[in-house]
């Protein structure tokens, strides 16, 4: 029944993509890794994929000298069902703020982690406090901001929330990475690819890209704010 409902939700999205409604319906129907991963795969198959992603991120964090302490102020945008929330909790994070457009995500994770802070709303509309966070995290999210103006506002909002010298861990769906992307986009209403230049145009020329590695069909990057 869950898969059938997922298909109905995706079918409706093909004709009208309303991000808040789409993600709240999808995660309400499947508040597991199928909801944020591939709905045609089982939760176990998605978990394997996420474990592989975690290994990549852990390796790049170590390579770039990213350490998590209880005092590290973290902001995660689009935390979904909380896979990365769980990860940072396992690393000892105590100062964590999560954001998601879906109300169900904030409701469920607030119950699981009452010690953490959560903000519900569209990151292009919700105003984050400036110069507050040591680490920004946005994994498998930016491609879902399909409106260019909203993308610019979201990236500016997140970047301004970071302290000087803070790090941003973010994924990018680059159109140059996948030669079949144009075919995929014919029926795809929930994703839009953008290259690194679109990000740096907002972050500024002094933003330092510490790492950029393959991350499934995307790139994973760690960027330092000057």
Give the strand order, joined by hyphens, for the main sheet.
3-2-1-4-5-7-6
List the helices and strands in order.
HHHHEHEHEEHEHHEE
Strand content: 15-25%
Overall CATH architecture:
3-Layer(aba) Sandwich
Using the CA coordinates, give the radius of gyration. 17 Å
Overall domain count: 1
Largest sheet: 7 strands, mixed
List the helices and strands and how they pair.
Layout: H1 2-13, H2 19-29, H3 33-36, H4 43-64, E1 73-77, H5 83-90, E2 95-100, H6 103-112, E3 117-120, E4 133-138, H7 148-161, E5 162-172, H8 181-184, H9 196-203, E6 208-215, E7 218-224
Parallel strand pairs: 1-2, 1-4, 2-3, 4-5
Antiparallel strand pairs: 5-7, 6-7
Helix pairs in contact: 1-2
Please, could you describe this protein's structure?
It is a single chain. The chain is of the alpha/beta class and 226 residues long. It has one domain (43-224): Rossmann fold (3-Layer(aba) Sandwich), CATH 3.40.50. The protein contains 9 helices and 7 strands; from the N terminus they run H-H-H-H-E-H-E-H-E-E-H-E-H-H-E-E. The chain has helices spanning 2-13, 19-29, 33-36, 43-64, 83-90, 103-112, 148-161, 181-184, 196-203, and strands at 73-77, 95-100, 117-120, 133-138, 162-172, 208-215, 218-224. A 7-stranded mixed β-sheet has the order 3-2-1-4-5-7-6. Helix 7 (148-161) links the parallel strand 4 and strand 5 (162-172). Helix 1 (2-13) packs antiparallel against helix 2 (19-29). The longest helix has 22 residues, at 43-64. The protein is globular, with a radius of gyration of 17 Å.
């Amino acid at each position: 029944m869950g898969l059938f409902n997922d298909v109905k939700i995706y079918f409706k999205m093909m004709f009208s993509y309303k991000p808040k409604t789409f993600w709240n319906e999808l995660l309400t129907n499947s508040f597991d890794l199928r909801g944020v991963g591939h709905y045609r795969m089982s939760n176990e198959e998605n978990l394997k994929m996420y474990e592989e992603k975690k290994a990549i991120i852990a390796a790049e964090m170590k390579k770039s000298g990213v350490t998590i302490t209880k005092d590290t102020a973290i902001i995660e945008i689009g935390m979904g069902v909380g896979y990365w929330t769980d990860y940072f909790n396992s690393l000892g994070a105590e100062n964590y703020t999560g954001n998601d457009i879906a109300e169900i995500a904030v409701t469920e994770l607030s119950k699981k982690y009452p010690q953490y802070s959560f903000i519900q709303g569209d990151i292009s509309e919700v105003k984050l406090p400036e110069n507050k966070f040591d680490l920004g995290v946005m994994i498998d999210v930016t491609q879902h901001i399909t409106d260019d103006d909203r993308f610019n506002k979201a990236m500016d909002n997140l970047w301004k929330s970071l302290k000087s010298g803070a790090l941003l861990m973010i994924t990018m769906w680059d159109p140059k990475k996948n030669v079949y992307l144009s075919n995929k986009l014919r029926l795809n209403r929930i994703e839009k690819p953008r290259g690194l230049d679109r990000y740096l145009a907002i972050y500024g020329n002094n933003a330092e890209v510490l790492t950029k590695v393959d991350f499934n069909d995307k790139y994973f990057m760690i960027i330092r704010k000057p």
